[in-house]
Design brief:
ten-stranded mixed β-sheet; Rossmann fold; alpha/beta; single chain; N-(1-d-carboxylethyl)-l-norvaline Dehydrogenase, domain 2; 12 helices; 43% helix
């Protein structure tokens, strides 16, 4: 894989998938975007426009489709669908996975790698976390306005280390802030802790983080969400450091004040939201391990009526 032109499928060309896939396409890799509806039509008619603070603004004429069976096996599949599309996407992407295909997931949550491994075999799946603030701002246009644009990749099996290193090298060459991680499960839980607070609190308040941190009460609740997720993680056997809640609060307070988590954006747009994947999953695991999670429960209870979108 190192140094070669990659055949890539971006399964879900929303803000996150389009950003990482767009970076690879800009670097000369053969990238096909899987999209639907007006976004797909716009890409096919006028191309994909990416406006980014990290990579600059650029336009792509990469192919896009809603039929994954038309693509054939790829070197890399970037799994970037929203949680409610997971089951259908996995069923539809069978033709993408050949003998040497690698799959990375940019989904939020802690279950993606397990679901993909169950479907395609653990040898095809790398652990991954993606952190970027990027969204579709109009059909065919994706804007990345904040976030580090990072991609952390790690092996799930003992024989994957070389392939992890090769993929990260390719991503770095494409301008992505990619790195390897020796304990990718820990990294996934660190991201999960971060996103449960960011997405949960910005969705709950319908406000960006700057407004949340301007108030003592919402700052304290933000910290409590982080603390509960970390405690649940440690109860499941993940060695999250005791300082992680305070550390994540501090690093998030240093981010752009206009940031709203993906669940917040979806809620404001009346789209389905990933509450079952995030704060509700914390509550579920807390119940299993006899850990109280009142802040996450409050977010779940307030947002469950919005789970499937609509006014």
């Amino acid at each position: 894989m190192a140094g070669q032109k990659l055949k890539v499928a971006v399964v879900g060309a929303g803000g996150t998938g389009a950003y990482y896939g767009g970076a690879l396409a800009k670097a000369g890799h053969d990238v096909t975007f899987i999209a639907r509806g007006s976004h797909l039509d716009a890409i096919n008619n006028s191309g994909l426009q990416l406006n980014t603070v990290l990579l600059g603004d650029f336009h792509l004429d990469s192919p896009a489709t809603d039929d994954m069976s038309s693509i054939g096996p790829v070197d890399l599949a970037i799994f970037a669908v929203k949680s409610w599309g997971t089951e259908t996407a996995i069923a539809d992407m069978t033709g993408l996975v050949g003998k040497n295909t690698l799959i990375i997931s940019t989904q939020n949550g802690i279950d993606s790698e397990r679901l993909l491994s169950d479907a395609f075999g653990k040898e095809h799946v790398l652990g991954c976390t993606a952190t970027v603030s990027s969204m579709i701002t109009s059909p065919g246009v994706v804007t990345q306005a904040g976030g580090p644009g990072s991609l952390v990749v790690g092996a799930l099996t003992a024989d994957q280390s070389e392939r992890v290193n090769d993929l990260v090298t390719q991503c770095v060459a494409a301008g992505i802030a990619a790195e390897t991680h020796e304990n990718i499960e820990l990294a996934i839980w660190e991201k999960f802790t971060f996103i449960c607070a960011l997405s949960g609190m910005t969705a709950l308040t319908r406000k960006p983080i700057g407004d949340i941190f301007a108030q003592e009460s919402t700052t304290q609740m933000y910290l409590q969400v982080l603390s509960e997720v970390a405690e649940v993680g440690r109860a499941t056997g993940i060695p999250l450091p005791q300082s992680i809640a305070a550390d994540l609060l501090a690093t998030t307070q240093a981010r752009e004040p206009f940031i709203i988590g993906s669940m917040g954006h979806d809620l404001i747009a009346n789209n389905p939201i990933e509450i079952s994947l995030l704060n509700a999953r914390v509550v579920e695991l807390g119940t299993k391990h006899n850990i109280k999670t009142p802040a996450n429960f409050a977010i779940e209870a307030a947002l469950r009526p919005h789970e499937f979108g609509g006014n």
